[in-house]
Amino acid sequence: MRIMETPFIFGKIATEKNFTDREVETTCLVQNFTSLTNTIIISPRRWGKSSLVNRAAKAAMEQDASLRVCHIDLFNVRSEAHFYSLLAQKVIAATSSKWEEAVENAKNFLSRLVPRISIGTDPANEVLIDFDWDAEKHDPDEVLDLAEKLAEKKGLKIVICVDEFQNIAEFTDPDYFQKQLRARWQRHQHVAYCLYGSKRHMMTEVFTNASKPFYKFGNLLFLNKISTPYLVKFFQDRFADTGKTIREDAANLIAELVDNHPYYAQQLAQQSWLRTTDECTVTIVRAAHAALVEQLSLLFVTITETLTTQQLNYLRALLAGEKAISSTETMHRYQISSSTSVARSKAALIKNDILDNNAGKISFQDPIYAYWLKNEYFV
Ligand SMILES: Nc1ncnc2c1ncn2[C@@H]1O[C@H](COP(=O)(O)OP(=O)(O)OP(=O)(O)O)[C@@H](O)[C@H]1O
Ligand SMILES: [Mg+2]
Questions:
Q1: For the chain, which terminal residue's Cβ has fewer other Cβ atoms within 10 angstroms, N or C?
Q2: What is the pLDDT at residue 273?
Q3: 265 in any annotated domain
Q4: Which residues contact 105 (CB under 8 A, 6 or more apart)?
């Protein structure tokens, strides 16, 4: 018997056949990359930022042989020192084809710092550069300008992509740090930046507040979820690739149950696919969805335990589709103490990534959590 790979992926970068939609966004990003325009991408978690940037970076480098794109993920980065060493490492790796070249570049362009360079025995391995960063002794401009100098010297264009950019808010003096970055980066002629992250409120604050250093730094792109027609076609194609089919109403139901959330769309499609012998039906999708909710319910209990009663009352009103939650009557019905409480709950839930505020439209970040609250917790 042939062991069949499942046709859906989630929690990894979606590429090629696993990737759908985002045509407009990809074209726009490729243009920004090749024309060295700074870009800022904002969307809640798991909506496909990394996948989109990865795809656009590949396409842009195919179009333009002098373009190099490097990716820096700030997910685990909590200090400026770590940031600078990562930046140097990635820029050198992206512009050096051999390790000899990497060593040369590090020596020539990082004169004031003494880097420790280690290279894996496998030539395909990334070059690892590290240095003892001492803020007292070193001025970070050398690292901040490294990409520009290398690009100029080698006749290259460089795009530096920084994922989870909102993490710089956790550095010791984030405003000062941002000022330094902005001051150097805005002078670069051969380098562009693509900064993206998932905390909508923080990212929006950093890039749209006129008093912040990164105000109007580049094109702002708010990523949306994936629209139903794309998802339906995607599910049908992926089922067909493995010799199975999915009915159109079943494919639509997957999109609806996950509220078009890209990650969950793939996860629920996967669960449905696993339950399907030949043709996936609405009944199968419903069973898969129930199993998914069940599987996540322990996690949801934990999340719910962290919420206050007022926050839960607010969520209950929201899930019931109440439009005017601050009206006296609605507050009374849901035992909400005051309109101040509504505002406070809303702000806290957005800050904690339970809710998303998209230009005033409030929605749940996690569609399965919303379903669980409504159909299991509040009943
Ligand atoms: N264009 C796409 N087509 C199909 N599925 C996608 C697409 N983009 C994202 N996904 C699905 O969503 C998942 C998360 O994507 P990705 O990691 O790119 O999102 P992200 O916004 O970077 O997430 P995070 O906030 O966790 O960094 C992928 O593993 C995949 O299942
Ligand atoms: Mg990501």
A1: N
A2: 98
A3: no
A4: 92, 95, 96, 150
Distance from residue 307's CA to the centre of ligand 2 (Å): 26
Task: Give residue 332 CA to ligand 1 midpoint distance, Å.
Answer: 40
- Domain extent, residue 50, equals 22-222
42 in a structural domain: yes
**Mutation to probe ligand 1, out of 263, 353, 365, 368 (largest number of atoms < 8 A from CB):** 263
Of the bound ligands, which one is closest to the alpha carbon of residue 263? 1
Nearest to 11 by CA among 48, 53, 52: 48
pTM, two decimals, is 0.91
48: domain CATH number is 3.40.50.300
Could you tell me whether strands 67-73 and 355-358 are parallel, antiparallel, or unpaired per DSSP bridges? unpaired
The H or E element spanning position 31 is helix 23-34
Do residues 373 and 311 make contact, with C-beta atoms less than 8 angstroms apart? no
Which atom of ligand 1 is closest in space to residue 21's alpha carbon? 1
Structure tokens at 63: 């179009």
pLDDT at 142 (0 to 100): 85
Handedness of CA 176, 177, 179, 184 (dihedral sign): positive
- Atom 11 of ligand 1: nearest residue by CA position: 263
Mean pLDDT of the 348-352 span? 93
Would you call 361 exposed, middle or buried from its count of C-beta atoms within 10 A (0-12, 13-18, 19+)? exposed
Identity of residue 43: S
Cα gap 267→193, rounded to integer Å = 32
Q: How many domains does the chain fold into?
A: 1
Q: Evaluate whether residue 370 is within a structural domain.
A: no
Ligand number with the minimum distance to the CA of 45: 1
> Does residue 165 form part of some domain?
yes
Residue 129 corresponds to which tokens in the numbers above?
Answer: 């550069």
Share of the chain residues as helix, strand and coil, in percent rounded to the nearest 5: 55, 15, 35
Question: φ, ψ for residue 191 (rounded to 5)?
Answer: -130, 140
Q: Say how many Å lie between the CA of residue 293 and the centre of ligand 1.
A: 20
Query: For the segment 147-185, what is each residue's pLDDT rounded down to a tens digit?
Result: 999 999 999 999 999 999 999 888 888 899 999 999 999
